[in-house]
Each structure stands twice: as structure tokens, then as C-alpha cells.
């Protein structure tokens, strides 16, 4: 589904990713772990196409397409979803309006008919229920006044509505209490654990991986993947720390 | 009052940014007088559009306990100016919600003087400008609180969004207070669309024009909240925004 080959990227002219390669196939869940400053969030933003994150070398192929040849909204329409570590507040624009316009823009670019207001609300209600989120919250402006945990849950509701092929989730577990962590974990499994979908979890900690079992765990350090293993690697990291394992 | 004044120059504070060549054929601008009788309420919406230069000057007297709600949507493509003098008597209320949406070489102006002449009057001004191209948007707003006008509650919220580096927003909220017990708030900000929000919206699949339109609609709509013809003003401002993007 996603093949990253020797990716190099800079932020404000500073090299952050220095030759990162990664292969993600449909049906797989990958976790990328690593210390602060390793380049984890930069990887997510670079794949999402955030302005200021400059690709200086390497390639990324997403379902046969050159990912870096697409604008951010085209990447979304191609099926890439980026869950934000810090979801952005947008005053005055309701979630319902925002998501309906987003979904219909994606559908349009894929040649599908737009969803009507009624069809959309039905879909939104189903996905909100999956994440135990009150539908009333989706009538409020995007993320405005939401707690950290509510924002992360809202990210998952958006993921459910937009139904991507690949979800890159950047520290979706940060700021969640134990109950919310379970709800979010169940949400990720329910929405994305399918043979035709894949997930890339970016996280500091093992705890989310108790709920969303990864098939592969990678250690990112110094802008490269320095080790790859199975779920046991996450436990090893938790026990011995990044320095010992990444060395 | 009725004497024919000479055409102003840029040295006159209220005309500092005006397109005087465009103003000349319209000079002198007639004062449109509005009186709201004690306890009554009135509303007015002014929509300016098109290339032809226009200038209006309203003088609004709001009597004791009366209220007036004025909304202005200025989408002119040339020089378009609205001046408002509001005089507030005791316990009266004045609301002004205005949006100035201009691109290319538009020069849009809103010049207000809100005089609190007696105690316990309330004035609210909300001005939102969206400027692209080489457009100039100006708000010059004075709130004058007379001696003895205690209990005055006045606010000015002025924000402008620049879509290009070549657009200009001028904003000058001004207070002149001769009473002791007053509450006057003013806020003024000129900025650009939030890049983080635009990326967030793009990441969910919104093309840049749509993302900008949604954010700007929300921004402009603040000027028309609670208006008698809110829907019509929102629709007209949406159409104007789409033309700007």
C-alpha cells in the first residue's frame, strides 16, 4: 500500500529524516516508536504534505501513485488520513459542515455522487456512537472548547466518516485517560483492522499497543529506522529504553 | 450644517485613506437623517456593490430607550464609503455589524462616530474585512462619551483578514471619554488565514479554495449575527467571498 524509499526531509532547512525506508502492506498495522526529536511527527507531516516539510530525496508510493506529486487534499482523497497530535481549532465552522464538505470533496474527486445532508448525518451518528461521542458535539465548531481527550476521539470519528485506506496516527494516545484510551483503541480496530486497510501508529509508549496490536514495530532514531521487529520489540523498548535498544 | 464644505484632503483624519478623485463628483455627500423615537426600534441594512463610486453618510439619532440595528455589507469594486454618526440618548442601544469584502483595486471605507450623550446607553460595533488583490479596507471609528454619560457600555471589535501581501487594512478605533463610570472595550487585529487550520482542512480532503471559503464565511458571519435579514446578508457575503478567492 505504501512504500517509502530512502526518504529525506528537512524542516526550516534542517535535515530531520535521513534516509527512511518502510513498506506497509494492506491488512497490516505498523507502529513507529522513538525518542523525542527522532523525526516521528515529521514523518507524518511529510507524508501528509504539510507546508514547510520539504522532501529533499527519496520516494513514497501510495497505491501505485507518487505521493509527493499530490497536493495534501489529493492525498486525502487518495485514502490517506493523518490523525493529528494536536488537532486544530476552527472557530465558526461546525464539524458537521466541515466533514460533510470534506467527504463530498473526496467523493467528487473519486467520481462518486455527494452524500445528501440526511445520508451524511446518519453516517456521522453511527461513527460518533462507535467512539461514544455525543452527536451534539459534532454540531459545535471544529475542536473549539474540546478537551485533549475529546479532540482525539473526534479525530477517530472523522477517520470513521472519511473511511481512509491508510491511517497515520500521530500520538493519538497522548492526553488520553485509561477509559478513553480503550475507546480510541477499539475505534482504531473497528474502523481500520480490515484486509484492505493499513495503519501506521506513531507513539512514544507501549500502552496503546495493548489495544491495537501491531504486526510490526519500528524504532526511529536520528531520522532513520534503526530496528524492526514484532510486538515484542515494543515491550523490549518499554523495559530497556530507546538508547539501549536503538544503539 | 448645510453649508457646502470644500472637498476634503488627505489631511482630514476621516478622509486620510479615501480615494479623493472618486469622491469629488459625489461631493458634498448628503446627510441621511434617521430618528428613532423614544422606546422604538429600527433596523437598516446597506449593501454596496459594483464599480461605481459611492458614498453615504448616515446621521442616526436614537432617543431615550430606543434601539437601532445597522448592518453594512460593502462589496464594492471601486471606491465605496459609508460614514455613520450615531447619537445615543439615555438607555438607548446601537448595533453596527459591518463587513467589507474587496479585491483588486477596491477602496472600502467605514467611518463611524458613536456619541454616548446620556447615561446607560449601549453600543456594539463589529467590523470584519477580507481584502485581496491591492484592495484597501479602512475602519475609522470614534466612540465619544460625553460628560455625565455614566453607565456607558461601548465596544468595538475590528478584525481584518488579508488574502494577499499587497492588500491593506487600516483600522483606527478611538475613544474620547469625559465620564467616569464607563465600560469601553476595543479590540483590533489584522491577520492572515491560519496556515495550520488550512493544512488540517486540506488533510481531510478540502481543496484550498473550499477551506479558505469556509473559514472566511465564519469570520464574516460574525458581523451579521442576529440581523433581521441575516440569511440574505450571509448569502450575499458568500457570493462576494467566492469572487475574491
TrEMBL record, chain A:
Give a yes or no for keyword ATP-binding in this entry.
yes
Q: Which InterPro entries match?
A: ABC_transporter-like_ATP-bd, FeS-cluster_ATPase_SufC, P-loop_NTPase
Q: Sorted alphabetically, which Pfam families does this protein's record hold?
A: ABC_tran
Q: List the Gene3D superfamilies.
A: P-loop containing nucleotide triphosphate hydrolases (3.40.50.300)
Has keyword Coiled coil? no
Q: Which residues form the ABC transporter domain?
A: 2-247
Query: What are the UniProt keywords, alphabetically?
Result: ATP-binding, Nucleotide-binding
NCBIfam families assigned = sufC
To which protein family does this belong?
Belongs to the ABC transporter superfamily. Ycf16 family.
| Name this protein carries in UniProt | Fe-S cluster assembly ATPase SufC
Q: Which species is this record about?
A: Novosphingobium aquae
Q: Which gene encodes it?
A: sufC
Automatic annotation (TrEMBL), chain B:
Record-linked SUPFAM superfamilies:
Stabilizer of iron transporter SufD
Q: Which InterPro entries match?
A: Fe-S_cluster_assembly_SufBD, SUF_FeS_clus_asmbl_SufBD_core, SUF_FeS_clus_asmbl_SufBD_sf
**Pfam families this protein is in?**
SUFBD_core
Q: Which residue intervals define the domain SUF system FeS cluster assembly SufBD core in the entry?
A: 59-219
Highest taxon listed in the record's lineage? Bacteria
Can you name this protein? Answer: SufD family Fe-S cluster assembly protein
- Species of origin: Novosphingobium aquae
Q: What is the lineage of its organism?
A: Bacteria, Pseudomonadati, Pseudomonadota, Alphaproteobacteria, Sphingomonadales
